Amino acid sequence: MKRFFLIAVVLSASLNGYSQGAPDYGSGLKFNLNEEGSKYLRVLAWNQIWFRSSEMNPGTMINGEEATTSTDIGNRRLRILLQAQLSKRYMIVTHFGINNQTFTNGGAAGTTGTGGYGQGKKPGLFFHDAWNEYAIVLPEADKKFSLSLGGGLHYYMGLSRLTMASTLNFLTIDSPIFSWPLIENSDQFARQMGLFAKGKYGKFEYRVSYNKPYATNIAPVDVASSDLAVAVDNNGNTKWSKAGYFEYQFLDTESNVLPYKVGSYLGTKKVFNLGAGFYNAPDATQTSVAGNIDKHDITLLSADVFVDMPIGKPENKMALTAYSVFYNYDFGPNYLRNLGIMNVGSADPDFTGDRALAGAGNLQAMMGTGNIWYTQAGFLLPTAQEKPKVRIQPFGAYTYKNFEALDKASSQFDIGANFFIDGHHAKVTTQYSTRPVYTSPDTIEGQKGEFIVQLQIYL
């Protein structure tokens, strides 16, 4: 990979809280619909392009050929978001785009083989968010309490800060994915359709929602005894889910105009928050024992802490960012789900060695019944220049997973750096990540690695 180009067609602009580390950006492009500016439309557009060098799990083939490594380029996210504020109380949000297009997959439904609609080509746009909301109690300066109600396809999914993270300002290169525990099963790209309420009471922020999960129908494997049962996603006549996230913001308060939680403010705010959340869906998974079907609730709990603040001498513009979260997941007995971001590998039918338990490519045990502890931290390096050409933010992350379906717990690491050209609006991120390779529930055959360079522009 000797050189690359990122071409961004800029349609748009920023929203409150989206200008971390880019003081020249201002409020972005805003279309006022009346003279006072109380009615307006804002547009946001962003591209995230990934260049990767990946070690494949044992037993992998790519496009019909045996493969132990892969290098590729892919469209991680190409998105557009529209926010229409029709009055002080009424707002509509529409967010659409594509994700995860590679040279082998991520194309439109039914694309396969060779040709104009071959594998990986012409991905279809779809809605990520589409909701409207009404402010019952306006968030005005002389009031401690605010309340808004809304409904539609929304991102107020509770559980944790990372579950509702903005994809524009991650500290690391991306989400660890297990923070979206229902991803593309009973949700649509981390969203469900339903009703939500949000607001503040002084330093306390709350978000709750009542949603109709998307239907799942994976058939459970019948086993002889309950200790062998493995829960799978099958919610039958779907029952409504409940979710919430509650946070106390000890220092600066954060904007809650939109649900997207900031990953790194680059020292532009002083933030110290403690949060806790939950998600519950009745009868959301099934097991089969001796021909009898048992239903199980999905109950997910979390607690987290977030710190982001300037440190040292003000003229050096240094900042510390840190986040830690603990998840307790219960999907039912021995539930385990394997995922890999933009996985280009498939199973090699002729492989004779010990295959990865998770499957081919970069698949890994991502989420399951059990516990996950995740911690990340980054440091914005000092600069003596008033307007430096590049700011550098090295970071690292650690993940501990202990799942009921696996006899051994695992650890994995991420290390990398952000190179900010214009805050989060234009940046290059590099990251090296490890993942454990299980060949049986009690055997980890070492680690595989993946190196990613991301080019991001959002405006």
TrEMBL record:
<protein>
    <recommendedName>
        <fullName>Short chain amide porin</fullName>
    </recommendedName>
</protein>
<feature type="signal peptide">
    <location>
        <begin position="1"/>
        <end position="21"/>
    </location>
</feature>
<keyword id="KW-0732">Signal</keyword>
